[in-house]
Amino acid sequence: xRHYFGRKLLIYGLxxxxxxxxxxxxxxxxxxxxxxxxxxxxxxSQPEALEAMRAYYTNLFGLDEPLWRQYLNFWAALLQGDxxxxxxxxxxxxxxxxxxxxxxxxxxxxxxxxxSWVVGNRLGAFAARRxxxxxxxLPVGYLLTATPYxxxxxxxxxxLGVVAGIFPVAGGYxxxxxxxxxxxxxxxxxxxxxxxxxxxxxxxxxxxxxxMRNMIIYELESDYSxxxxxxxxxxxxxxxxxxxxxxxxxxxxxxxxxxVLVAGALVTEIVFSYxxxxxxxxxxxxxxxxxxxxxxxxxxxxxVLIANxxxxxxxxxxxxxxxxxxxxxxx
Amino acid sequence: MTxxxxxxxxxxxxxxxxxxxxxxxxxxxxxxxxxxxxxxxxGIFGPLLVxxxxxxxxxxxxxxxxxxxWLGTNxxxxxxxxxxxxxxxxxxxxxxxxxxxxxxxxxxxGFLAGYRGGLVDEILNMLTNVILVLPTLAxxxxxxxxxxxxxxxxxxxxxxxxxxxxxxxAIRAQTFSLRTRExxxxxxxxxxxxxxxxxxEIAPNMSSYLFMTFILLFGGSILIASSLDFIGLGPTEGxxxxxxxxxxxxxxxxxxxxxxxxxxxxxxITAIVGxxxxxxxxxxxxxxxxxxxx
Lengths: 331, 294
Hints:
The complex is a heterodimer of chains A (331) and B (294). Helices cover 77% and strands 0% of the residues of chain A. With 331 residues, chain A is mostly helical. Chain A has one domain: MetI-like (MetI-like fold), CATH 1.10.3720. Chain A is globular. By secondary structure, chain B is mainly alpha-helical. Chains A and B meet through helix 1, helix 6, helix 7, helix 10 and helix 11 of A and helix 4, helix 5, helix 10, helix 11 and helix 13 of B. Chain A: Belongs to the binding-protein-dependent transport system permease family. Chain A: This is Peptide/nickel transport system permease protein.
């Protein structure tokens, strides 16, 4: 088990290292002068401000120092939680801007990921034993997985928001409200949350249902199922064993899908102008705010790595083989 | 020798004939292929038949679908049908290039890691896992935003370079089980070099699997490309289905009630990718006798 976690930790550490390095390299080795282009984009008219910004950027990029020092400085600043200062909302530190957006993204992602996984697995397991259900779940599932996240979001916003007028189609809460812990605000928050959540939930649902259906059918045809059936075990018991075995690959699948799901959340947020990391990325790109872009990128990488690590721990808890020391399976 | 020489091609053709026989009886494969072929035909021949370029201002703005403008016009008076036709072409190109590149890298890494094993496997596996854990879209975003070169080719290149890891993993696992078979041992004992063994002995034995991997990567590339386009990192010239969606959203087609602006591009993407997936299931049933409905 120590071997298992050691290997996983190594990969996560390496991934984070690669991500940070890519993040550091891009403004330095790509063609063009980042400082000049940022100054041009910031559209500051006063010469003193311009000079101050140039000095600030040059200092922040540390372009006057040797490359290896720049690289170490980047890490040092990062480990202190210093992501630089946003160009888009100028004097605010990037870390502050990001922390303001993270709760919205997490509030959207966590329920959507977990619920679609649980419901999708149930649905898939159910479909595996009823022909009629199978014939509906399968095509609908394929259609849903093939749908781009933003398109389903746009369709939902149009149908339930604009035409039916049930849900608001933009923002994280009512325009007339300020974030407080009042009932009115929480109600508004939930109303604005419903559509982005639904679109994320729906697209992810199809894949899990199909995956589970295929796994259950595979398990029900395997030797142990046939053996149990030959022994006269009740169908319910066989299905329970099949489900338990089929869920394991689905947990690995959850870890693999995480990056895709994050991407889905980002574009969905953009459709609904939901004030999370996705909208922040859009703003950063539109305003050429590279510090903000870098900051959100690192934050997303960190989030995905942490989530993956949690899934690994869950996997160990659920699968006895990993607990028994992966020594034999290490090959 | 002569017996084997004549027997082999015969059995190969009979296998092929059997696969064809089941392919023509497989409803999923036929439906999926049919949808793809129709859309592909529109993408290839459509631009030759429609008048004007996709971004030309061809008529009154905000016209609903009619006999003159099959899918109506947008707020700029651009013909949405013309844009759709050109967009389909772009979408297919991104899918083929991105998916193809990802398939090639995935196969190279998977075969090498699976066949050589040992240290090569360790290193390649580590690389695969690192890229697997990185959120691809975030990487694409940051590189795309910095580079500023926005063309279909560059987009496909980046998608191809980042979406191969799961394919590599799957192919590696398959290669593992194949490399201990007798015919591979025989080839190795007779001194055949590694690349030749992989190309001649191992790859043909999982060709159906490789083809299906390519189909899935093809669909995945289209979805990723549409997300990038939607965020505003699409090609700056021409039009794609993702760009159409982005424009529709940006110019509030939702609130203006211009459903003919945002429904066709999304439906087009869903139809292509969905048809690919369904055809893939059909292919699986054709190649894998266990899965056939009795």
